[in-house]
Specification:
8 helices
């Protein structure tokens, strides 16, 4: 089986780049030869398929691990090393792209949440006017002034320095106080400031 594949691969084999359409292919003189090669691969416990493409019979292996296994069995070490290296590089690149996309989405979400919070804080200050305690007013002013800053960054900007939880707590209390006052006065609360644009999931 190995000898049959080795001869066929050396004479008529091709190996495409690793990836979604990666394949090891061998062209065969006819369907009988293709089926014989599929049988030989099966004896090596490797899954392959015979197919006719534009009048040419081929045997194709698409699974990356199966391709590696066959190259190993054939003793095609240089081909195997080169192919595995390209395969690994592609996987690393794909992983990096996925992580970058994930980070971008998270950053967009965080920035959008910060901008929305800024709009609510502005509404809270409008509702409460002079009734806002100074420490809550300062936290609110920082949120408005630095619309896209994280809570951690706002805490760093505060004098004295505050933890992320402390600044978040002050902003929460400011919003709660304003919403309560708005309900008493029967006027729109802080959430009325959230327009569809602020909540839109676009960069």
């Amino acid at each position: 089986s190995e000898a049959a594949w080795r001869g066929a691969f050396l004479a008529h084999g091709s190996l495409t780049e690793p990836g979604r359409s990666s394949a090891l292919e061998v062209t065969c003189p006819g369907p009988e030869a293709a089926l014989a090669l599929v049988g030989a691969a099966r004896r090596l416990q490797i899954s392959s398929k015979a197919r006719e493409v534009r009048g040419v019979d081929r045997v194709v292996i698409r699974d990356g691990d199966a391709i590696s296994a066959l190259l190993t069995r054939l003793g095609a070490h240089e081909s195997l090393l080169a192919w595995e290296e390209r395969r690994l590089r592609r996987e690393v690149r794909a992983t990096a792209n996925r992580l970058a996309n994930f980070d971008d989405a998270n950053l967009r979400r965080s920035a959008r949440a910060a901008v929305a919070a800024g709009a609510r804080v502005q509404r809270a200050l409008d509702i409460l006017g002079d009734e806002v305690p100074d420490h809550l007013k300062l936290a609110g002013a920082l949120r408005i002034e630095h619309k896209q800053a994280s809570l951690e960054e706002l805490g760093q900007l505060h004098e004295p320095l505050l933890t992320k939880d402390a600044i978040a707590g002050r902003i929460r209390r400011l919003l709660a106080m304003a919403d309560k006052r708005a309900h008493e006065l029967e006027i729109p609360d802080t959430e009325s400031s959230l327009t569809p644009d602020l909540l839109n999931d676009t960069p």
